[in-house]
Amino acid sequence: QVQLAESGGGLVQAGVSLRLSCAASGRTFSSYAMGWFRQAPGKEREFVAAISRNGINTYYGDSVKGRLTISRDNAKNTVYLQMNLLKPEDTAVYYCAARAAFDSGRYYIVGSDYNYWGQGTQVTVSS
């Protein structure tokens, strides 16, 4: 089992950068594929980015490609989401998620594939 805690959200102006972190408990973080999702008020949860256990393979949602980068540090039990050129439409609560993965190179882009979720961190981008 793993517990996840996001941090790094806040209120920023459009165009700036922000880095979110998701710290995981436990000693088997490297066994989990990780993902980031977001949910804006009145909207459904949206896939943002995913990364495989080994950190080699990544995948992004169409709305964030080229601006957001997911990475992980298995030694620190942490996954990151670097967000550049933020837009007002990026405003949402951002959640990290984890699922155990046998294949070290596989990532997952569907929310229901994940077993564990953090509480979320709010990102608000003003114009």
Task: Kindly describe this structure.
This protein has 127 residues and is mostly beta strands. The chain is 0% helix and 48% strand. It is built from no helices and eleven strands. It has strands at 4-7, 10-13, 18-24, 32-39, 46-51, 58-60, 68-73, 78-83, 92-100, 116-117, 121-126. The protein is globular.
Total of helices: 0
The radius of gyration is 13 Å
Binned, the helix content reads under 10%
> pLDDT below 50 for ≥5 consecutive residues: which ranges?
none
Give the class from helix and strand content and strand pairing.
mainly beta
Main pleated-sheet profile:
7 strands, mixed
- What is the global morphology? globular
Terminus-to-terminus distance: 40 Å
Number of strands: 11
- Chain-averaged pLDDT: 96
How much of the sequence lies in strands comes to over 45%
The ordered string of helix (H) and strand (E) elements is EEEEEEEEEEE
What are the salient characteristics of this protein?
48% strand; single chain; mainly beta; seven-stranded mixed sheet; four-stranded antiparallel sheet; 127 residues
